Amino acid sequence: MEAAEGWDLSVLLEGLLERSPTLNWVKDDQHRLIYMNPAFGVAFGIEVDEWMHKSGWDLFPEDMARAMAENDSRVQETLTAEQVAEIVVSDGRPVHYLSWKVPLPQEDGRVFLGGISIEITEQVEAERSLTKAIAAQQEESAFRDLLLGLLSHDVRGPLSTLTSLIDSAANPGEGLTEDDVIELLPDLRLRAHNTLELVDEVLGWARLGRQASHVPSLPVSLRGVASSIGDSLATMAEAKGIEIDLSGLEGAWALTQPDLLRTAIRNILENAIKYSPEGGTVRASQVVVDDEVHVHIDDEGDGISDGAIAALARGDVQSSRLGTHGELGGGVGLALCRDLLHRVGGELTAERRAGGGTRFTLSIPHKGDPTDLRRVVYVSRARTAFDAGSLALLVRRSRARNDAVGIGGVLLYSGDRFLQVLDGPNEAVAAVFDRISKDPRHEDVTTLWDERIEHAGYTGWTMHFTPIKDELIKAVSSGDFQALDGVLEGARPATQ
Questions:
Q1: For 292-341, how does the pLDDT look when each residue is reduced to its tens digit (9 = 90+)?
Q2: Rounded to an integer, what is the distance from CA 56 to the centroid of its chain?
Q3: C-alpha 290: how far from its chain's center?
């Protein structure tokens, strides 16, 4: 073959291939290399002869060789040039190449293969980084929307109710007597504590940010979750004469984040109370299906609409209709619950019940009853003195958190000194004790006992005011819990 003006084109092409910075190669009909230019050897740190007459099956891991052979065969069979992206291993690391593969039919009917390859590893890594950055930005935006929803739905509503009650108590024009105001105080106190817990949850999610979905899950007791949210729902249910039956949640454990599950179940129960008729019943139950636990929440209302079921499946926020007593709603509660559950591999669905009303189902990864139990006992000193009200609030909030993860225990207080027992699943006890150790409200945290146990011996999370003597600390440190039991029998529990 000759070029214009008498130049030998084959010589020119050979010079181009040999001097080109791209990887130029030719394979026979069995995909064995029969030509490689010097750039090929430089890229892989080899002498060209080392790879001559070898195929990808001789040179690369099986999965990479198979993908390469499939691409080669397709080009040979279709006799159509293709551009393909491939990965090979060089110096123990994956290297990305973009290759142009061209069929080269021979006179004897065989089809050889010619190709030009360029490395695109940097471009691929840059694209991946950009994709991750975009995904992180989208997740951040979605998380911001989630927090705004929590503020508007979970926090604003209780704060509005609390403000209205306080205004009624403080305004003489409302016609309230002094006895009426005194009667309102326990309800005000309970609502204030519940609202504070909600704010703590929102702040916790804000601190976690978009990493919330990566926080390790813990074994969570459904019975404990039910116990921890019962008080916050009681007032709302009593106002409509609605019975809340949570007994069906006994005995099952889920694998999730306790605060997240508590938030989701509380929202669904509030929704069920809102749309239940006066004097109705809201029931929660559970059933284990394969590797999931399904939590069912049933109400006796008019039943959810087809549009709302479809919107929930899509994760859309729907405008909220009034409850059976004209209760307002933020309209985002269900979408929030679905989003929260998705973050830990769960799901939320809804359906109309045959006998009337709605059934919501929370599907959560299942955790069998924990057999790896642990007991930790510690003493510490309060940085500032606790009055009875502060102690009662401390116990109530701790009990709500610890019940959810199946932790029982007891807390002794004397002057400025604490002694606390924690019983429960090993992972949960470790997480709670780590949080307790970092709590700035006390110092000099000293572990007296930390052992695996076969059976939990302390439940109920009772608070006791009792002298914490050195003899008691010494006894507990040696494993003599009868000394502790003796103290508890005659102690005076705090008001909870």
A1: 889 999 998 888 888 888 888 887 656 556 666 666 554 456 777 787 78
A2: 42
A3: 20
Residue 388 and residue 395: Cα distance in Å, rounded?
11
Q: Which two tokens stand for residue 240?
A: 């409509």
CA distance 462 to 391: 11
Query: How many CB atoms sit inside 10 A of residue 319's CB?
Result: 9
* Token representation of residue 128: 């991946």
Angle CA(59)–CA(60)–CA(65) in degrees, nearest 5?
Answer: 110
> Which residues of the chain fall below pLDDT 70?
1-6, 139, 142-143, 146-158, 161, 172-176, 190-191, 193-194, 196-198, 200-216, 230-232, 316-333, 369-370, 455-457, 459-465, 489-496
Q: What is the pTM of this model?
A: 0.53
Position 1 scores a pLDDT of 47
pLDDT value of residue 66: 92
Q: Are 366 and 292 in contact (CB under 8 A)?
A: yes
Interstrand relation of 373-382 and 358-365 (parallel, antiparallel or unpaired): unpaired
Alpha-carbon distance 33 to 55, whole Å?
A: 6
CA-nearest of 158, 263, 270, 163 to 203 is: 263
Q: The sheet that has 347-352: what strands, in order across it? A: 243-248, 281-289, 292-298, 358-365, 347-352
* 111-119, strands of its sheet edge to edge: 33-36, 23-27, 111-119, 93-105, 82-90
Distance of alpha carbon 165 from alpha carbon 386, whole angstroms: 28
pLDDT at 73: 95
| Residues contacting residue 127 through CB under 8 Å, at least 6 positions apart | none
Residue type for 216, please?
P
> Measured between alpha carbons, how far is 300 from 495 in angstroms, rounded to an integer?
35
Q: Which of 272, 298, 267, 268 is nearest to 285 (CA)?
A: 298
Task: Note whether 447 and 436 are within 8 A (CB).
Answer: no
89's CB contacts (< 8 A; 6+ apart) are 60, 61, 64, 95
